[in-house]
Amino acid sequence: MIPAEFEYYRPTDIAGVIAILEEHGDDARVIAGGHSLIPMMKLRMADVPHLIDLQAIDSLNGITISDGTIKIGAMVTQHELINSAEIEKAAPIMTEAARQIADPQVRYMGTVGGNVANGDPANDMPGLMQCLNAQLHLIGPDGERTVQARDFYEAAFMTDREDEEILTAVSFDAPKGGYAYEKQKRKIGDYATAAAAVQIIKEDGKVSQASIAMTNLSDTPVWSEAAADALVGTDCDEGAVKSAIAAMLDDIDPTEDNRGPVAFKRHAAGIVLGRAITRAWSRA
Ligand code: FAD
C-alpha cells in the first residue's frame, strides 16, 4: 500500500515543529520512528498532509539520571533503552519491558515518545509509565507543561495532549524493590494479548508498597490501585495474589478481537499478573 501524498518537513528545533503544527492544525502530524504512523498512513487509516519528522531535533534525545530521577528523551529508541547499562541498573523493568516490544527491526526505530504519545492501548510503554508514576513533559504554543501518565490516557488513541503539543520526555523516580514486566502474546513480535507491569517494595517480610498496571485490556492502560492495595501488608502468599488478580479483573474491560474472546483475555490477564507478582516479589 502507498500512503496519500504529503508534504515532508525536517525542522532542527522544537520551535520549528510548533510553528508548522500551528500553521496546519489537524492536517499536520509529527513522526518519530514511524513504526505506528507509517503503517496507518499506508493503510489510509491516517491522512497526514503535513508530516513533521522529529529525527533532527537533538534536544529530544538522551537519557539522564540525576538525584534518583530518570529522564528519557522522546526520541530515545527501544533499542537504546535495552542497551543502556544505566537504565538497566536504575530501572530494570524498563529494560525487561523494552525487550518484549515487537522485534529488533521495530525497536531500532520505535521511540519511547512515539510509544507513549500514540495512545494505542496495545503499546507497552503507557502501562509501564503508569506503574512507575511517570511524568510526561509536553511543549506547545503556550509553553511547557507536565502531565501524570496516570491522567494522560482518555480513550483509544485519545490523550490529554493537544494537537499543537509534542511530548519532549518522560521522567520518573528510580523505582525501588522488585519488578517484573510479564507479557502474553500470540507470537514473537506481536502486541500483547495481556501484559502486566509490577513493582513491589518489601519491608520486614511484607509488601510495604506496590504498583500494578495492565496493558491491552481496556481502551486505555489500566493502573489498578485496588490490585496493589490487595498486596500491601501481606507476604504475597497465594491468597494475596488471588485477591490482587480479582481486584485487577474488576478494573479491566477487554473487548473481543483477533487476539481472542473476552473470557480468554480475562484468563490471560490473571495469568500474567500472577506471574508478574511472583517474579517481582522474588526480586524484592
Ligand atoms: P510513530 O509511528 O512515529 O508515531 C506514533 C504516533 O505518535 C503518531 O501519531 C505521532 O504523531 C505521535 N508521536 C510520535 N512522537 C511524538 C512526540 N514526541 N510527541 C507527540 N506525538 C508524537 N509497540 C509496543 O508497544 N509493543 C509491541 O509489541 C509492538 N509490536 C509492534 C510490531 C510491529 C510489527 C510494529 C510495526 C510495531 C509494533 N509496535 C509495538 C509499535 C512500535 O513500538 C512503535 O514504533 C511505537 O509504538 C511508536 O513509536 P514510533 O517512534 O514508531 O512512533
TrEMBL record:
Keyword Metal-binding on entry: no
Alphabetical keyword list: FAD, Flavoprotein, Oxidoreductase
Domain FAD-binding PCMH-type: 1-177
Molecular function GO labels: FAD binding; oxidoreductase activity
Pfam families given in the database record: CO_deh_flav_C, FAD_binding_5
Keyword Oxidoreductase among UniProt keywords: yes
Protein name, UniProt field: Carbon monoxide dehydrogenase
